[in-house]
Amino acid sequence: MSGFVGILNLDGAPVDRALLEGLTRFLAFRGPDAQQVVCQGSFGLGHALLQIASGTGLEKQPAQLDGRLWIVADARIDAREELIGKLKAKSQSAGALSLSSPDAELLLHAYDIWGDACPEHLLGDFSFAIWDATRRRLFCARDQIGMRIFFYARTGNSFLFSNTLDCLRLHPGISSRLNDLAIADFLMFDSNMDQGTTTFADILRLPPAHTLRCTAEGVVIRPYWKLPEEAPQYFGRPQECVHRFKELYDSAVSDRMRGNTAGLLKSRLLGGSCRAKTFLQTWAKG
What we know:
The protein is an alpha+beta fold. It has two domains: 3-223, Glutamine Phosphoribosylpyrophosphate, subunit 1, domain 1; 238-285, no CATH class. The protein is built from seven helices and twelve strands. It has helices at residues 17-26, 80-90, 103-114, 165-169, 180-189, 238-256, 266-285, and strands spanning 3-9, 34-40, 43-49, 63-65, 69-78, 123-132, 137-142, 151-155, 158-162, 204-205, 210-215, 218-223. It is globular and about 65 Å long. The model has no long low-confidence stretch (mean pLDDT 89).
């Protein structure tokens, strides 16, 4: 998916534009359709676009809202009609939003209305960073399940972030020193058990369903969601369960389809569909 990178100099020093442009060029493998950089004093954003949604307007990132808010994102926002209705009900500035509006534009308006609570109103896969020029702070968030990645690091007076780990490693202030505990976890459990760290000691990872706020005073990370515990549903006949499953499945797929085409990994599709079919047949037989 699209790539992004950002630099915030907490001491107010201007961002090295040449460095930011180099980091953004590295992301071209993620976003071959367009690369763009914005530098405004002590903060800078870079974005490499992969255009995948034909049903929306061409994304232009970094994007901004009234010069107050700037965003870079790798996002696919679902339940768009419901979200747009809520945004229009809260703000006149959201009146021009439509189903064809880019995801980044929806995210900007959501933050403008709900501030740090905006991820609580979002469905989909997303990883984004918003620079709030009025409050002089950076706000970042990652989706509930963690489908999109967000890495960050602190070097000297600079706060760096990207959705690509190797991009941050290109910064001259980031070392290649390894995180021994993460390596040990990988050797023992085949994965890093700490969702807030990476294999490299200087680079951290924002856990799923968390937000990050960065100011000159420091970094604050908070959870905004947890898996709800709902009462189980009981059906009188097995076929009712199958019917309900199909309703939910069709709704989820249609919500994510913005055009008439889609790309799928055939091996996963066949494996997943066979397992689902076997499960439903077994369930239906009792």
